[in-house]
Amino acid sequence: MREGSALPGAPGAAPVPGFLAKLWALVEDPQSDDVICWSRNGENFCILDEQRFAKELLPKYFKHNNISSFIRQLNMYGFRKVVALENGMITAEKNSVIEFQHPFFKQGNAHLLENIKRK
User: Locate the HSF-type DNA-binding domain: which residues (predicted)?
Assistant: First the structure.
């Protein structure tokens, strides 16, 4: 999907940056759920296998395999990493799942993507 294109199936939708459209397609794709998927409540998305994500999916969707560049892009669009809290303290992830959230990136709400702006 090109930069500034509308999401498929969204008639009259405002243009959505290519990065966000690709990210949405990637998280929505059930075939990649073992690597990247929505959280249980649909409020966040999770990268379940960082190595496979960088090796298999980043090149397919974003034409590079640099996880740091991908995270930098997320940050430029206002996404924030979700940290695990246990007993009021930040804990290291035991299973190394990386989770991100954005107020306008919610499962089943593609229409909200037009509200996400690059900083």
Answer: 58-82
